[in-house]
Amino acid sequence: MLFNSYPFIFVFLPITVLVYFMLNRLRYGLAAKCWLALSSLFFYSWWNISYLPLLLGSIAFNYAVGRLLQARQAHSLDQTASRRGAKGILIAGISGNVLLLIYYKYADFFIVNIGAATGWEVPLLNLVLPLGISFFTFTQIAYLVDAYKGKAREYNLINYVLFVTFYPHLIAGPILHHGEMMPQFDRVRGKLWDWGNAANGIFIFCIGLFKKVVIADTLAVYANTGFDTASGFVDSWVAALSYTFQLYFDFSGYTDMAIGAALLFNIRLPQNFNSPYKAVNIQDFWRRWHMTLSRFLRDYIYIPLGGNRRGEAIMLRNLVLTFLIGGLWHGAGWTFLFWGLLHGVGQVIQRLWGKLGITMPRVLAWAITFVFITVTWVFFRAESWADAMRLMKGMSGLSGIHLNLDTALLEPVAIMILIAPIVFFCRNSSELSVSFRPNFRQAVVCAVLFVISLMYITRISEFLYFNF
């Protein structure tokens, strides 16, 4: 089920909210959690019920591993032996999650490349990527690591199911920690209807809906056409910039709708998107873009690799490795790996530049960062290496520079000129949420955004991050 669909907006969301608070009002707290967990499983099954057993199996496996970790640490008198045993359990748990991800996400990629290298003809598995598998897998890996460190304990199966499946974050994040999620469901005040949170949630949800169905889906037409056919200088840059802004509004739109829907339940999801195109360097960009993924990569990959504790050269190596893994997480393809490599190398160059002690004007730093991000998105979006090279040749002028603007390109250029100030200068949704106060003006803005969005919602499309 999609956030940007009539069934979700007019049926599923209001019914789940209404029943949840009715059960809590009647003091059926456990029943309310069960209702929300079952509703989330129904939400997931709406896409393809055949993958529900996969999700439930993943939950059962990780819950059992988490309980083993907790039991090992709680009942062992020999702390050294306990630590070794717990570490073995953790490695087994993480391995199980990674193998599941490799099978569904990377099996065909490996088969193709092994076949190309060896000449073997192995039939592809042609597996359909289960929706949200990267997100619920990473969420549970984080839980296992936190359980191993003693930072997370969950003895109630219903609580754990709700933690993993809570539908505002299930499909495309944010990637959550158990400690920042479950205490909110147990707060007494959180079980009571809150008009302030509801108004704020609806406001943020409407902003996200508008971003997705009006702006992102409009730009998608030009981005798709450009990546299929563009080869000249102007049309290649229009295609790249169209996708750059499409991805921005698509992903931030999803994030807004997830945060807004969760607020209706008095649940505050962590910020996941903080005006990334305002960044003045690559490190700043990754502090703003998909913030919970950046946190995961830092805490569970970069730091375990050694972080910056073993000297400058090892630290730079760890940066590149972390971003290579981040690129591969986004998709099974050499273009995704190269995209990750570019961002890793960008981080290294920034670090080395910082050691020179040379500063540049802030506007120039922002411009270089934005152009770098736009160029790297080409590899992120391209269906093949050949498509990426065609766009890169066009953008670099190697295919010739013809500045006459085709009339078909005037519309996307005009749209991007209109939305650029929103991206670069306006307050983002998180900032608007903090300063939000229910009043007539806000209600009018919300209503206008919602009505306009409904006019576009007939062209229903999935969010881009559903593919990752």
Give a structural overview.
α2 crosses α6 (157-165) and α10 (233-264) crosses α17 (407-424). Helices cover 73% and strands 0% of the residues. It has 19 helices and no strands. The radius of gyration is 23 Å and the shape is globular. It folds into two domains: 51-186; 197-467, no CATH class. The protein is mostly helical and 468 residues long. The mean pLDDT is 90.
Q: What's the gist of this structure?
A:
This protein has 468 residues and is an all-alpha fold. It is built from 19 helices and no strands. Helices cover 73% and strands 0% of the residues.
List keywords for this structure.
468 residues, mainly alpha, 19 helices
Order of secondary-structure elements: HHHHHHHHHHHHHHHHHHH
Q: Return residue spans where pLDDT drops below 50 for at least 5 consecutive residues.
A: none
Major sheet? none
Shape: globular
- What radius of gyration results from the CA coordinates? 23 Å
Average pLDDT, to the nearest integer?
90
As a percent range, the share of strand residues is under 5%
Number of DSSP-assigned strands: 0
What number of domains? 2
End-to-end Cα distance, whole Å, is: 17 Å
Query: Structural class given helices, strands, pairing?
Result: mainly alpha
The total of helices stands at 19
Helix content: over 70%
